Amino acid sequence: MRALVRRCWGRRPVGGGAGRTPGPQGRALAGLGGPPGGKDGRGSRVREKPPWRVLFFGTDRFSREALRALHAARENKEEQLIEKLEVVTVPSPSPKGLPVKQYAVQAQLPVYEWPDVGSGEYDVGVVASFGRLLSEALILKFPYGILNVHPSCLPRWRGPAPIIHTVLHGDTITGVTIMQIRPKRFDVGPILKQETIPVPPKSTAKELEGVLSRLGANMLISVLKNLPESLNNGRQQPTEGATHAPKISARTSCIKWEEQTSEEIFRLHRAIGNIIPLQTLWMDNTIKLLDLVEVTSSVLTGWLDWCSVSDAQENTNSY
């Protein structure tokens, strides 16, 4: 039996008069870093070198790896890279909370739930997969601004779902970008460090997330070791090649048989299958495809030939 499916359902701004030198918060927002030996807008002295006081913003498994690296650096008393580490996450319907909160509680780190960001003093903020737009007033609370660990080679795949879109669109190269965030727009700030890697063949978004999370955590620690220099050497993102990676919805999981090739359908499965099962219509019923098996073209051709013979025999026997 063959079925033809034709459709699917659907803290404050830095003051500055004429001739006034901008303070370190203004420099941080401009991507220039804080001046060695200077003071921030609250009068506290800006640190010239580690150990840093860090406020971390994160939610999921990808950001948990960055938090794990920061925590390990804080526990390493010989290197003295991190002095204070506190965490901001978002509320979750799960009693256990999101992966970042679970790790923070286990590691006995102070945790705040957005929009509460605590009242402590910090040198630098770190964001990884947080999903909230941070205000200019918040960014300016940090003498060295806020860094973002982003799993793509910016400006490609700006937005909340870069890993999914990397797999979905069949990219062969990806990477991680450490950048300094800007207010009002996601993923547009200067690049402090960027590394590329090949996308493993047939990898799922979940598998690629594991690879990129470890790479991003290592890159973050490298940037923090030379933070003022990294900020001073930051480069603006290219104006060419910017793409957007929007959130995935249930509609994305709907197979469009008339529009998608078999390769595109398998990429869709590898990109979102562990989050949302693919959906289609079968005899006017919505069904979920819990798994797909990729076959070679020769096997598929043989299977189609067998279907044709079977249909012919069925038609013959019906008379």
Give a written overview of the molecule.
The protein is α/β, with parallel strands linked by helices and 319 residues long. The protein is built from 9 helices and 9 strands. It has helices at 24-29, 61-75, 99-106, 136-139, 162-168, 205-225, 227-232, 262-272, 297-317; strands at residues 52-58, 82-89, 111-113, 124-128, 146-150, 173-180, 191-198, 278-282, 285-289. Strands 3-2-1-4-5-6-7 form a 7-stranded mixed sheet, covered by helices on one side. A two-stranded antiparallel ribbon has the order 8-9. Helix 2 runs parallel beside helix 3, helix 2 packs parallel to helix 6 and helix 5 (162-168) packs antiparallel against helix 8 (262-272). The radius of gyration is 25 Å and the shape is globular. Mean pLDDT is 84; it is low at 1-26, 31-37 and 296-319.
Low-confidence stretches: 1-26, 31-37, 296-319
Spatial order of the strands forming the largest sheet: 3-2-1-4-5-6-7
Total helical elements: 9
Helix content: 25-40%
- The first-to-last residue Cα distance is 17 Å
Short synopsis of the structure:
This protein has 319 residues and is an alpha/beta fold. It has helices spanning 24-29, 61-75, 99-106, 136-139, 162-168, 205-225, 227-232, 262-272, 297-317; strands spanning 52-58, 82-89, 111-113, 124-128, 146-150, 173-180, 191-198, 278-282, 285-289. It has a seven-stranded mixed β-sheet, with helices on one face. Strands 8-9 form a two-stranded antiparallel ribbon.
